[in-house]
Amino acid sequence: MVKAQKKSVKAGKLVNTEHVNRVIRNYKQERWVHNSKRLGKEDSLSVWYSVEELEEFLAKVKDHGGDGIKLYFGAYDTEHAPQPLYEGRQTVVFVATKEKQSGKGLINKDVYINEGKGTTILAYNSGKLCPPMCTNDDGFGIGITIIDKGESGIIVA
Predict the structure, then answer these.
(1) Long-range CB contact pairs, 6-10, < 8 A, 24+
(2) Which of 18, 90, 98, 110 has its CA at a distance of 20 to 30 angstroms from the CA of residue 119?
């Protein structure tokens, strides 16, 4: 008996330092400066997760039939921030997906699971934001940007 293997679908690729510096620098100049000004404090530039917790989440995704992850950008409000320093800052949320055929072709549909009290999306959040939870040069050594704040001075980020 010959078992057909599912073709692996890849949306991303490995990139180099130059690429990382460029997209982070673009983000800082086009989005981060404006977000930080609107917030009245530096917005987050990165979110950190351990390999172990990501592997645990990926295992759960696979256990529930998922075959991919969507990475949503979000922002914490006062009521749902894991800690007060995170209020207003941006974050990322990992959402499990499963490829499905639809009238419009293949789509990556969010995975929902039954948790006893009802159905909920299979998702992961609450990583370590930088800022404010930076250690050493977390988030500031790549894509460095100098921001002129006029009379308020400059920021190197």
Answers:
(1) 9/68, 9/99
(2) 90
3-state secondary structure the chain: CCCCCCCCCCCCCCCCHHHHHHHHHHHHHHHHHHHHHHHCCCCCCEEECCHHHHHHHHHHHHHCCCCEEEEEEEECCCCCCCCHHHCCCEEEEEEEEEEEEECCEEEEEECEEECCCCEEECEECCCEEECCCCCCCCCCCCCCCEEECHHHCEEEC
Tens digits of per-residue pLDDT, 38-74?
999 999 999 999 999 999 999 999 999 999 999 999 9
Taking only the tens place, the pLDDT of each residue in 91-138 is 999 999 999 988 888 899 999 999 888 999 999 999 999 999 887 655
